[in-house]
Amino acid sequence: MAIMVPAWVDGTLQPVEKLAAHERGLRHKAISAFVIAEGKLLLQQRALGKYHTPGLWANTCCTHPQWDEPPQACAARRLDEELGITGLDLQHRGQVEYRADVGGGLIEHEVVEVFLAHAAPDLSITENRDEVMATCWISLSDLHTNLAQNPEDFTPWLRIYMAEHEGLILGDGAME
After folding, report:
1. Which of 67, 77, 108, 127 is deepest in the core (most CB within 10 A)?
2. Mind listing the pLDDT tens digit for each residue in 37-78?
3. Catalytic residue among 61, 62, 74, 113
4. What is the spatial distance between Cα 119 and Cα 84, in angstroms, rounded to a whole number?
5. Active-site hit among 82, 108, 110, 113
6. 110 flagged as catalytic
7. pLDDT of 145-155, one tens digit each?
């Protein structure tokens, strides 16, 4: 069954098959979630079976809402589906837009609703191996060091988030 995402075609928001939206580079809706515990950010390494950016490290969760799915409901759904994480208080941090080549002739042109959640240090994580091959908790200073030394290990959107939108996403004492 094809996944239909909200995308703008000739200025009109309409359901478009997810792969087609990326092949055509259409501007489309997305969500990104960042989960923090004890001053560290939870990253996920994308499964090798993903059709773009396999094996790269990304923020905790990122996806596209289904047609008519509210962003916060989408973020909660995908945190559960990808990582088995439930019950977090997702705080809306704002909206960002980016356009990035993600390889294989595919373009992510996303209008992203960003969410942040604080978790207990003993947060239970159950990785869905179809989506996620690994997770890690990382400090912001270590993340910045790794991004500078090995940018090719990270998704284009995580590099963009940290370079251009870190204050919006993780500012105002969010990492404390």
Report:
1. 108
2. 999 999 999 999 998 999 999 999 999 998 889 999 999 999
3. 62
4. 13
5. 110
6. yes
7. 999 999 999 99
